[in-house]
Amino acid sequence: MSRVLRNCVVVLVALLWFVPTYLLLVNGLTSVHDYSGSPNWYPNSFGLFANLRAAWNTADLGPAMANSLYYSVVSSAGAVLLASLAAFAAAIMPVRRRALWFWLIYAGTLLPLQVFLRPLFLAYANTGLYDTQIGMVVIYIAIAIPFAFFVLRNFAVTLPSEVIEAARLDGASWWRLFWSIYVPLSKSAMAAAFVFQFVAVWNDLLFGITLATSRNIRPIMAALADLQGNYSNVGPPVVLAGALVVSLPTVIVFFLSQRFFVSSLKLNV
Amino acid sequence: MSVTTDPVRGRSGLPPARPEHPRAAGRRAAALWRERLMAGGFLLPAAILVAVVLLAPFCYTLYRSFFSDYTRSTFNDLANYGAFFTDPNLLRSLENTLMWVGGAILLPTGMGLLIAILTDSTRWSRAARLAVTIPYAISGSAVAVVWNFILTSDGAVNSALRGLGLGGLAGNWLLDWPGNTLVMIVASSWQATGVAVILFMVGLQGIPPETLEAAALDGAGPWARFRHIVLPQLRPVSIIVIGMSLVNGLKAFDLIFVLTQGGPGRATETLAVSMYQETFLFLRPGAGAAIAVLLTIIVLLASWTYLRRQLPTRGKV
């Protein structure tokens, strides 16, 4: 009896949860010409590619996706590299005022992003970084470093000190220790940090609308917000198709890396 | 040679085991200095970037929040902060932020725990879990697009209600306060529950089945087992889930900005949205800075009080 009830609740919750995803799929696939003005509950035509073309033309989704891909990969890789250097030093090398270094780098995650916006906007406008790809990469690297540092440092602390001691006695330099021992051992932690930051940068809207404006610079979420602003002009199916294609990279990354993801979350518990 | 593994104090600064020759001691000191210099080289790129791009702007915002918004901005001590008690828009924004925090904690945590427990241990319910975790991979902006489609006046909810003969229940979901803020919290929870489910699953798998079997043999019913074994074991995970939800609720921005842009009027703004609007739309950077600083204080205070009460030890640092 209780098992039946339990299964019913599971099915009901799952269905309820799936409805928005289902509507996104069905209506994103519907061709604009067949869209009657009220939502479709079952697929009645296939216009995904026409919708994507329309979204592409209205909001330049294509270039924006290329931008975001570039920002996500370059900034996450850069942040993970810099953060792993710092984590290695902060956990393993003889450093004075360890706690101070830790908080200096980690403090960035504690502050809401809004607090950086206007000064960055002004500084970018004054230095010519406003509305440039390098400017976007710089802010995304800086934003990504603190959390990556936190994850990698937590990992570095767990490395057995005997390994480091032995290598030091054999005369290995810190640089060599970093590349030949630390990096290979912390590969999975680095991958987890990379995935986290990739998703965070891909999903960013705030800096995308503040620090960039040109269509060939702005990231994908700014373009999607723009497309949503044209909701009634281009037709809901086009906007939904845009949301669908914009979500694909994070959905794929998320499901490919779920194992890393879960184990790195365990690391933080 | 023994080595301390304390993460903060570290491995350096150990006294030599026996008195050394002065020249050897000098060489040791020089070597130590070289090492520290080297460590600085490892730390500096990350530290400089964070200091210049994040911490310096924070200090500037803090400074700016004490100055007025006239063309020649003058020091006006706490006037920008005082605006919170006189500007109805900011009061509403504060109110909405509190609603977001409450909703963002209760819904994903409660639903996440429920779904994790219901779908644990049955094989077929992986599909159900998938339905709940997919939205987590969708970005806040895309979630806003989907829910706009569902909630607009000629959207999916109203069309479904009319189709079921319940047209009387159809309403303007996004137009009337506080309903519009509440439906956006539901939309955000639709997305955020996925990660809570994943985390609670991790926690559930960490509970040794022997404990539960032993309790069952001792005659503990399902509710008693849940209450006295499962729930206490899930405590560390719950701390993480609630802490994440707390911060997410406080920082709510993307969904609101894309879905309603804070409107109609400024009815659905949260502090995060108000800051953006005041600074970039109404060109009142002083007021915007004060909101950003207030938000920072609330986030820091909330995280600190929450974590201090919840974490048994003083944490890892």
Q: Give the CA-based shape of chain B.
A: flat
Question: Could you say which structural class the secondary elements and strand pairing of chain A correspond to?
Answer: mainly alpha
Work out the strand percent of chain B: under 5%
Q: What is the subunit arrangement here?
A: heterodimer
Mean pLDDT over all positions of chain B: 81
Mind summarizing the main beta sheet of chain B?
none
Mean of residue pLDDT values of chain A: 85
Please estimate the helix content of chain B: 55-70%
> Unreliable segments of chain B (pLDDT under 50, ≥5 consecutive)?
1-14
Instruction: Please provide the ordered H/E string of secondary-structure elements of chain A.
Output: HHHHHHHHHHHHHH
User: Structural class, judged by helices and strands of chain B?
Assistant: mainly alpha
Your description of this structure?
The complex is a heterodimer of chains A (269) and B (317). Chain A is mainly α and 269 residues long. Helix content of chain A is 77%, strand content 0%. Chain A has helices at 2-29, 48-59, 61-91, 98-106, 114-127, 133-157, 161-169, 174-185, 187-203, 206-210, 220-229, 231-234, 236-256, 258-268. With 317 residues, chain B is mainly alpha-helical. Chain B has 13 helices and no strands. Chain B has helices at 22-64, 79-82, 88-119, 126-133, 140-151, 156-163, 179-205, 209-217, 222-233, 235-250, 254-259, 271-281, 285-310. In chain B, helix 3 (88-119) runs antiparallel to helix 10 (235-250) and helix 7 (179-205) packs antiparallel against helix 10 (235-250). The chains are: A mainly alpha (269), B mainly alpha (317).
